[in-house]
Amino acid sequence: MTKKEQLYEGKAKKVFATDAPELLIVSYKDDATAFNGLKKGTIVGKGVINNRMSNLLMQKLEKAGIPTHFVEELSERETLVKKVSIIPLEVIIRNIAAGSFSKRYGVDEGFVFETPTIEFSYKNDELGDPLMNEYHAIAMKLATQEEIETIKKYAFAINEQLKAFWAECGVILVDFKLEFGKLLDGTIVLADEISPDTCRLWDRKTGEKLDKDRFRRDLGGVEDAYAEVMKRLNEHI
Ligand code: TMP
């Protein structure tokens, strides 16, 4: 597979064309941002960890019947993926209150929900990714009702798979963000990444944060946290 021109550079990844029109190469960077790009930094080695972790988890999800964009890991930082048109919705599943949920509703971080919740944000940096309900998404033609139903079904199924897997690793899956895309034939697949950038992961025994909140909140030990979750994943995958 030949890497061709760069198509896009995001906050954490670059995307390249290949000689196959239906395939792209994503390359993971060590760059980290928070608060809609206001805070910038580097997490050394993050790109390597996120690439590997995301690929291992997506392969696990594929085995559980959830279609993903994953095709093949090409190198430490690069992965071949199916080309999709991204549905501009951030799909957030929460098992435990934290982050913007705790702030918005005045709920203590750590409050365990009766059942998992789902919410959508409109993927739009200029607007700061505002919350959006599914009626808004359908009204704006971001997705059809049927596509929203598929996305919800996959998102909750992914939660069950990932929650159980992280529990085996002694890690609590607090919440996470997913992005879905559409293949040319309209099939919905999981895209983007699943990593400590996009999940809140707490150590079961100590409650220690093992994710990007260490960077967002200046808690220190960011690289060590990423390395620790990667180690646990490798021991249990
Ligand atoms: P939040 O509590 O800040 O809304 O974040 C919910 C989850 O989504 C958390 O696991 C972090 C993840 N997330 C992203 O992946 N990208 C983002 O831009 C934001 C704001 C959150």
User: What would you call the shape?
Assistant: globular
Number of helices: 6
- Output the structural class: alpha+beta
For the biggest sheet, the summary is: 7 strands, antiparallel
Mean pLDDT across every amino acid position: 98
Any idea what the CATH superfamily of the largest domain is called?
ATP-grasp fold, B domain
Describe it for me?
The protein is of the alpha+beta class and 237 residues long. It has helices at residues 46-63, 99-105, 134-139, 145-168, 213-216, 222-236, and strands at 3-9, 13-18, 23-28, 31-34, 39-42, 70-73, 78-82, 85-86, 89-96, 112-122, 131-132, 171-182, 188-191, 199-203. The strands form three sheets. Strands 8, 9, 10, 11, 12, 13 and 14 form a seven-stranded antiparallel β-sheet that branches. Strands 1-2-3-7-6 form a five-stranded antiparallel β-sheet. A two-stranded antiparallel ribbon has the order 4-5. The two termini are 28 Å apart. Bound molecules: thymidine-5'-phosphate (TMP). Residues 92, 98-101, 175-177, 198-200 line the site of thymidine-5'-phosphate.
Q: Quick summary of this structure?
A:
With 237 residues, the protein is of the alpha+beta class. The chain has six helices and 14 strands. Thymidine-5'-phosphate (TMP) is lined by residues 92, 98-101, 175-177, 198-200.
What characteristics describe this protein?
single chain, about 240 residues, alpha+beta, Phosphorylase Kinase, domain 1, D-amino Acid Aminotransferase, Chain A, domain 1, 7-stranded antiparallel β-sheet, 5-stranded antiparallel β-sheet, 6 helices, 14 strands, binds thymidine-5'-phosphate
